[in-house]
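tool_call: predict_structure(chain=1)
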Amino acid sequence: MEELEDLDRKATIAFPGRVVRKDLVRKVKVGANVPVFVLEFLLGTYCSTDNPAAIEAGLNIVNTTLANNFVRPDESTKAQSYVRERGRHMIIDKVKVKYVSDQDKYWAELVNFGHNYVHIPERYIQKYDRLLMGGIWAEVHLNHMYDEEARGKKSPFWIEDLEPIQLATFDLEQYCEGRRMFSTDEWIDFLIRGLGLEPSFFDRRLKMLLLVRLIPFCEHNYNMVELGPRGTGKSYAYQEISPYGILLTGPTTVANLFYNMSTGKMGLVGLWDVVAFDEVADLQKMRKEIITMLKTYAESGTFARGKEALSAYASIALFGNTNQPVEVMVRSSHLFAPMPDIIREDMAFIDRLHYYLPGWEVPKMRMDFFTDHYGFVVDYLAEALRDLRKHNYTDTVDKYFSMGSHLNARDVKAVRKTVSGLIKLIYPHGEFSKEELAELLDIAMEGRRRVKEQLKKMGSFEYYQTSFSYIDNDTREEFYVGVPEEGGRNLISTDPLAPGSVYTASVGDEGRAGLYRIEVSLSAGTGKLKMAGGVQGSMKESVQRAFSYLQGHKVEMGIASVFDTSDIHVEAIDLLSNRIPADVGIAFIIAVYSTIKKHQTLPGLLILGDLSIQGNIKPLPSLSEVLQLAMDNGARKALIPIENKRNFLDVSADIMERVDPVFYSDPMTAAMKGLGLT
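tool_result:
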């Protein structure tokens, strides 16, 4: 607890007036349905202290302000009457502005106040253009002045003064100086508290994933998707943390999102820092042209309307709910399955996503997850993130690392932007070590590889290169980055397996590869085959054919005596849990031979191929997928039918460099080479 108290103390010293106790926010929030950034604006003004008496006095002021000045939607008529009787009053409300062309006049709408025609000086519209699209929360000083001669609607309400609920100025250098007072671990915890959460409940990986949610706010034109269970806080940041993001629910239009040609007004992407789509499954009815234009925008930040090409800087975030465990999605389809068809079927659009955040790793929010300690006033954090959008750290990686061969131009761009965003969040002062940068690079590559893996599963061969890696510029050591839900790395052990255990792989009809470990054991018996769990379908048939071959060739293979006095037990372990049909005849023969001879197979060996009922070798329909799988999971060698030699023209050079091919022409040769006896 002392450590937490020290962090609180450090926060109040480093950022005086910019931090607030998050339990106070929840305390007041219960009785006031007001956005968090509005509430913390008031708490940061009156309660940014560690003095209990001052906090209590500040809470009284906040509660009084909310009681007297915050307008509840169900009390709109009462609020209007109050302003009329007093003649002048300050309220806290969301202000939207519309232009009425036939009157040539701007009218303000005060949402909770319940009035759509409030006079507003045009200087505020010029100063705060978000008034015209979506609106902003503000302190509004209203006058009641009924003027019969006023243009347009005879409205008695006039805005005398308007101050947005956000900081007037932000000093980045001061922010960076405050950052220097914290260690990296302390700063990450402090940022998590800024989100209202208690970091002690989360491990390092989860903290980093929570911070990734903030990247769209500090990195312009950043495209991310998060799919996961309900109740994990996916859209919280876009509703409560920043006034610079807008959360859309349901379909939208080209005019609303990009540019309205009839009014000449820029759409959401030009007015907000982040445009987020909640419940993406509801976008099914959205017109195809929107996705087409969004695809162009996601690539270049530009879009065409009329005769002009326009630019914008808003990041795009997509959120959706998963209805199945991730294991089921990985095994049966792909991780974009919850998306609507209009997005899921457009692989070019998916390829433009920079990051796929695994929402299933984020726990559902519980009350004990929320912090009682100091964190940033979210309004201040929002301003910091917005100011950091001006800076660029995309080239920082090059100082220490270079990208692996499997990353194409889009992959590199995605990884660079993610790293840049994480630097802005964690190291805004630009001071970090090589090891700290490597951590960010790992996270960035994983999120982009998750996108690429799904594209590969969707059946497009152009996305088959998913073995992401980065190279240390000094040592030239190469580091590979996996994705946990796909089984991780090094499923193929480079340590020698016990006799009777082998690795094998196969390719399904849709081009997806399966990875298995075949285990064979012997018991006293009469030469019978006994198949355990996991051996079914085409695998069962291939094992039976291989067993028949062993029965007919046991003498020439030198295993007759043991074979006739033993029962053979076989089991198959599906290492990727994707249930890809597998023909494993040669792997089974080698496993039996290994068991009987009590000799291990070569370490890191993947065995490929099957045999016909007459004992002829059956080549694989394709090599690229299984050898890619072999390389991704740590294989050093692959035992391959000689008939597949012609397929090596389709295999990339980097695979051939890392996985040594060993060819065979018959089962006996395969067995001898598999055990390293020839």
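agent: Residues 47 and 57 are 8 Å apart (CA to CA). Proceeding to next step.
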